[in-house]
Design brief:
The protein is mostly beta strands. The chain has 4 domains: about 100 residues, Phage tail proteins - horseshoe like beta roll fold (Roll); about 90 residues, Baseplate protein-like domains (Phage tail protein beta-alpha-beta fold, 3-Layer(bab) Sandwich); about 80 residues, Phage tail proteins - horseshoe like beta roll fold; about 60 residues, no CATH class. The chain is built from 5 helices and 22 strands. The strands form 4 sheets. Strands 1, 2, 3, 4, 5, 6, 7, 8, 14, 15, 19, 20, 21 and 22 form a 14-stranded mixed beta sheet that branches. It has a 3-stranded mixed beta sheet with strand order 10-13-12. A 3-stranded mixed beta sheet has the order 17-16-18, with helices on one face. Helix 2 packs antiparallel against helix 4. The radius of gyration is 24 Å and the shape is globular. The relative contact order is 0.14.
């Protein structure tokens, strides 16, 4: 591979479709010509990550003192990650002298740092809470136009609670997002994204005989049961299994190929909320059944391009058709893209995609106990 590593002071000509550009936003420096690239985005992790390698020369050695620098990473003209350089390694061998930079997206500060608010006040909505937690870290809150705003508008105010001094900002945000039934993850622009599990359909998908170079299709019965049962007490009072007349119970009978229909495999769990809330119990049980099925069906594919047929980079939380009948995936099966890794190596450009049924990525419902409204916790404005 020719050594095209360089640092330029201006954007200049339009980039190639697969050219990786790293803009150091404080200095206005643009880094191009990378030898190796690995950029990962996911809806299952709080923040994105990157690992980039270039050959060392008089210009690229300027990177040695850039740890902590804010960066925006683009593929062609499409931004795929906004965050910070966290680690810089200079690697010197008898045959090479390389520099490797790695880091994470902007939400890394929420993951690492303590929450800067000490309570959740009355009449606070999820978006307002996320904004108050994320704003001190210069992070914006984004709601995609996929129906999520209507869900937010219909939600009741969050329960009033005290925030532990040991909790990170991400732990607080994720807990309340789960309570509201929404995913929370990082956008390409480094925004805190509140969203439902995606319903948007991508411009094209992946197919054996087309853009798939390798594929692993996993189907399993591990973690699946014939019935999922929630109770409010850990004691069954001697009643018979799976048909308990004198015990409050919510049961979901699993169906489909992962349901173990020929085996009796019940599972019980004690609902964790302090008050009897049948709606929460029903959501919890349905979530367990849906998630068990979704997690038992995973597809990991290595494709030959960073973009779909429409020219858009692969986007997480978007549904794509997957066609791989020889691997056990019927043609045009619609699956949600949960994770994408853009890879550049001596073998060229590739993308590693992780798909699964949409119901496998619904957030786990949780119950929150309400803080009593007493004088010790009320603000002066609320008293």
């Amino acid at each position: 591979m020719p050594n095209a590593d360089r640092i330029v002071d201006a954007v200049g000509a339009a980039p190639g479709a697969d050219e990786v550009r790293v803009l150091l936003t404080q200095d206005g420096l643009l880094l191009t010509g990378w030898k190796a690239v690995r950029i990962t985005r996911s809806i299952e992790f709080a923040t994105s990550s990157f690992l980039l390698t270039c050959s060392a020369d008089a210009n690229t050695l300027k990177l040695v003192s850039r740890e902590g620098a804010p960066v925006t990473i683009s593929i062609g003209s499409d931004v795929v990650l906004a965050g910070y350089v966290e680690t810089i390694e200079t690697i010197l061998t008898p045959t090479s002298h390389d520099i490797t930079i790695s880091g994470r997206g902007k939400l890394a500060d929420l993951v690492d740092c303590s929450c800067r608010i000490d309570r959740i006040n009355a009449n606070t909505g999820l978006k307002a809470l996320c904004t108050s937690v994320a704003t001190p870290y210069s992070i914006d809150v984004f709601v995609p136009p996929n129906g999520t705003q209507a869900v937010l508008d219909a939600l009741p105010a969050l329960p009033r609670q005290i925030v532990s001094i040991t909790e990170t900002a991400w732990e607080v945000i994720e807990r309340y997002a789960r309570y509201c039934g929404l995913l929370v993850y990082e956008s390409e622009e480094g925004e805190l994204t509140l969203s439902q599990a995606g319903t948007e359909l991508g411009g094209s998908g992946v197919a054996l005989g087309g853009n798939i170079e390798a594929i692993v299709c996993t189907k399993s019965t591990l973690g699946t049961f014939s019935t999922y049962n929630a109770v409010l007490s850990a004691y069954s009072m001697g009643a018979d299994d799976e048909s308990i007349a004198n015990l409050p119970v919510v049961t979901v009978a699993a169906t489909g190929t992962a349901a173990n229909s020929g085996r009796t495999r019940p599972t019980y769990f004690v609902s964790e909320q302090s008050a009897t809330d049948r709606r929460f119990i029903e959501k919890r049980v349905n979530w367990m059944a849906s998630r068990a099925y979704g997690r038992a069906r995973r597809v990991r594919a290595l494709v030959d391009n960073w973009r779909d047929a429409s020219g858009s980079p692969w986007l997480v939380n978007v549904n794509y058709p997957v066609s791989a009948a020889l691997a056990g995936v019927p043609d045009n099966t619609i699956l949600l893209l949960a994770e994408v890794t853009f890879i550049l190596s001596e073998k060229g450009t590739h993308a590693e995609l992780v798909f699964g049924p949409r119901q496998g990525f619904l957030p786990e419902p949780i119950a929150l106990d309400v803080l009593p409204m007493d004088e010790s916790t009320q603000t002066p404005a609320e008293q």
